[in-house]
Automatic annotation (TrEMBL), chain A:
Pfam families in the record: BPD_transp_2
Alphabetical GO biological process terms: D-alanine transmembrane transport; L-alanine transport; L-isoleucine import across plasma membrane
Identification of the protein by name: Branched-chain amino acid ABC transporter permease
Stretches that traverse the bilayer: 12-36, 48-68, 74-95, 107-128, 164-181, 209-231, 243-260, 267-288, 308-329
Family per record: Belongs to the binding-protein-dependent transport system permease family. LivHM subfamily.
Record flagged with keyword Kinase: no
Cellular component GO terms, alphabetical: plasma membrane
Keywords, alphabetical: Amino-acid transport, Cell inner membrane, Cell membrane, Membrane, Transmembrane, Transmembrane helix, Transport
Membrane topology: Multi-pass membrane protein
The organism of origin for this protein: Pelagibacterium lacus
Record InterPro entries: ABC_transp_permease, BCAA_transport_permease
GO MF annotation terms: L-isoleucine transmembrane transporter activity; L-leucine transmembrane transporter activity; L-phenylalanine transmembrane transporter activity; L-valine transmembrane transporter activity
Keyword Transmembrane: yes
From TrEMBL, chain B:
Cellular compartment(s): Cell membrane
PANTHER family reported in the protein's UniProt record: HIGH-AFFINITY BRANCHED-CHAIN AMINO ACID TRANSPORT PROTEIN BRAE, HIGH-AFFINITY BRANCHED-CHAIN AMINO ACID TRANSPORT SYSTEM PERMEASE
Recorded topology in the membrane: Multi-pass membrane protein
Sorted UniProt keywords: Cell membrane, Membrane, Transmembrane, Transmembrane helix
Keyword Cell membrane: yes
Presence of keyword Lipid biosynthesis: no
Species the sequence originates in: Pelagibacterium lacus
Protein name per its UniProtKB record: Branched-chain amino acid ABC transporter permease
Automatic annotation (TrEMBL), chain C:
Family: Belongs to the ABC transporter superfamily.
Gene Ontology BP terms: L-amino acid transport
Keywords: Amino-acid transport, ATP-binding, Nucleotide-binding, Transport
Keyword ATP-binding in annotation: yes
Pfam family, one: ABC_tran
ABC transporter domain mapped to chain residues: 4-234
GO-annotated molecular function: ATP binding; ATP hydrolysis activity; branched-chain amino acid transmembrane transporter activity
The name this protein goes by in its record: ABC transporter ATP-binding protein
Coiled-coil region: none
SUPFAM superfamilies for the chain: P-loop containing nucleoside triphosphate hydrolases
Amino acid sequence: MNDFIFFFNQAIIGGVVLGSVYALGAVGVTLIFGILRFAHFAHGDMMTMGAFIAFVLAGAVAAMGIAFPLPTGFIVVPFAMVIAAVFALGIDKGFYAPLRAHGAKPVTLLIASIGVTMMIQGLIRLIFGVGTYSFFETQPKKLIRIDLPFEGVTRPISFSEPQLLLVLSTIVAVVALHYFLTRSRLGKGMRAMADNPDLAKVSGINTRLVVRVTWVIAGALACLAGTMLALDVSLKPDLAFNIVLPIFAAAILGGLGHAYGAIAGGFVLGFAETLAVFNWAVVLRPFRDALPEWIEIPNTLSLVQSEYKLTVAFVILVVVLLVRPTGIFKGAST
Amino acid sequence: MTMRYITVFAALVALIVGVAMTMGSAFTMRLLVEASAYALIAMGLNIQWGFGGLFNFGILGMLMVGGFAVTFVSYPVNHAFWQSAGPLMLGQVVLGAAIGAVLIWFAHRVQRFGVTGAARGAVIVVAWFIAYVIFRSQMDPAANYITSTSGWVGGLGLPVLLGWAFGGVLAGLIGYLVGKVSLGLRADYLAIATIGIAEILRAVIKNLEWLTRGTLTVSPISWPVPNPQFYQANGADITTSFILARGGFLAVVAVVVLIALFLIHRAYVGPWGRMMRAIRDNYIAAGSMGKDVTGRQLEIFVFGSVLMGIGGAILVSFVGIYDPSSFQPINHTFIIWVMLIVGGAGNNFGALFGGLFIYMVWMLSEPLAQSLFTTLSGWSASQGWGAIPDIETRAVQMRVFVMGLIVAISLRFAPRGLLPEFIKRND
Amino acid sequence: MSLIALDKLVAGYGGAPILNGVDIAIEASDIGVIVGPNGAGKSTTLKAIFGLLTVTGGSVTFAGQDITNFEADRLVPLGLSFVPQEHNVFTSMTVHENFEMGAFIRRDDLSDSLDMVYEMFPDLKAKRRQPAGELSGGQRQMVAMGRALMSRPKLLMLDEPSAGLSPRYMMEIFEQVVKINAAGVGILMVEQNARQALAFATKGFVLANGQNRFTGTGQELLDDPEVARSFLGG
């Protein structure tokens, strides 16, 4: 039983945490693709940028001597999201909107987003250097342990407070997004524009407004994802650049343009990564006596060595692109 | 139009002379060697994107493959490995892989035995899994054995120029495989697929300690011409030795670049280039006129990859150390795109110019930013606001920002580059 | 004053103009039908009115206001509505949501308009929660017309509403067009089924090579032997 709790702590909690980050990132990528039809490569750096905004705010709040029962980095997230949304709007206005006005092809916008990636990364490193920061320099990172009331179970279920907050805020964000997309006039307008941009225009939908709303949502969600990721691990300038590909993989897996697909894709990849590097020998050991003698359980029995953890997402991505480029879910927006 | 070429290249020469006067000849020589290698790589991307319209965001992978090739070919032979059981075990790995490949081959043809649909998919997945287990069961012990007994497999001890050539061949082979699996995809999917494959390559090369020494790095990697130590042993002072050795290296690289430029240019203005442009501009029409679109695109992808592999091999052999963890998307993929966008996609001379020019901007951004920051810092200190901390580490980052800005400005105001593609008209 | 008036309209996709001086004028009480051979510029005329391509000469006037080269999101609030020939529903959205999107510019209560549309197309009432992409071609055309009516237009423009429909659906669509017109909405439509459409048109326009060839009431055009020979297949 202890071994299963180990499995739960390592694989299930790890998968949910990673999946939440991927899902939040992938939703932004997929919304931008749905509305503007280009792969927004700078999304990872918008996440990093959002995390640094939250970091600066948290530093300012801590400097004022205000303390909270929750991590300060988490308390300031809503404000950071607003600032990040404004930045996202500014990036669109400064770099993408002029190209769109000139009738640039999606490929040109993709290349432009590489330029934006480099500018954001350069600026972040210029201002903050290349070092690693922690949100928990002035407060402790709390661990939550839940002891199970079963006989012979000594190992508790354990996870950190930021991980819990990450999962909770992902749920809140996803539910809020769901209601926005299915209940509000603007949200439905966004879906309409993703579905059929020409008809949306003909229907009198203000497409410029929809584009702005898309950047606001994508920027805010990127900030949330980046900050929560930085709270869970640590804050560094290449925080999210390294996971922008798994995020794209999640968005493609879910069918680019489909918000729910992106969320599902994020969790599929999160679990795939953690399960692939999980040491299955631990779970098999309790059955040692039931197995025939000639089967020997090695000390490590993982599908993929942990050095190759990130490649799991890429392999899945490449396989999906080749076998089913519209995504595993109903992909209509190609 | 000719005026434009003269202006642009004259400005480049002026820039080089200016750099030589302020930064010294040895530094300029180094800059030129590296810039020429980058120009070669940019010409490779020009073939793929400029001529063929094929997106490749996996340039980094090709450079790593090229670097590995030159390391493997030119590094001295590791006798400890060849005298151990290592080669035999690697033979078993190859055998295991072959068995797995046969298994997969049969699984993909299982519909001939009446297994179709979901069952066929299941068989294929199981076959891949079994093949993977067989491979790993041979590979893991072999890798452990080699790293513990002899460190790594070592090199072949052959001439370094052969290594450059092998870099091209190996990158071409990888390019063939990458192209084979991903060329059917749309532009943005192709971009993401190639970047994904490059990241897989990067992870593999970084972690295959038995083959590449991984993060332990390999050095020194020899030069095709006498190196500075050779001149120093013959009595030259340090600066002169660097200028002489790097000058020799530059001459070799320049010859490679000129040969490549000549060959590509001839192909481009000939029927092959015409067909390529036709396919790029309207592959449906080209396909309906009986052109083998996928075949030609694959050809293009391989040619471009060959140049990238040679360029990567040159860079590694010039630096003299193969460090897989030094390869970064920004320094080795995105910057090539900046070169091509600024220079002019579809124009060989644009790629050449962009490669040389952007690499110099990239390298000069750092000292320029540093002096800018030092000035600013002195000013802010004199105003009583204090100096800017960590100027040196920050100045390095300035160049990334500058590159991003250059792309944004270029796309906005000169979307076809400084030397746009010229279209020969018969009227 | 006409509801909509096109005066010597010249428009195209950037190259040589496709329309070379088209004149059309209809009243709110009219059902205007544009017929003509393929490539005559029928659909182009509607797109030019709706700001989907650039007008380079002439003018479009709507209820006295010059609307030449207005973009679509400014035209809908004025009271123009357009049903494109293809891709005219949001396939991933429900029938109901399609109607809501038609009323995107409205901030008031939609229930009256929704009741009216469902009354007009009772088949759709049962399918209101279904994605429009799952409906048959005829039902999709109804969704598209319903969507266009949700903005309470003064002028409804339809691009070949009967294309690809069975005769039964074609008749139903035409009947609804007449009803919509009776409710005070001006109609301007392009039709391939020229005979059937001209039979109920109050104004007919025959276009060829981007120019007006014949203009008259629907019946006049049907009776004109030259129109019949050249454009209505004898």
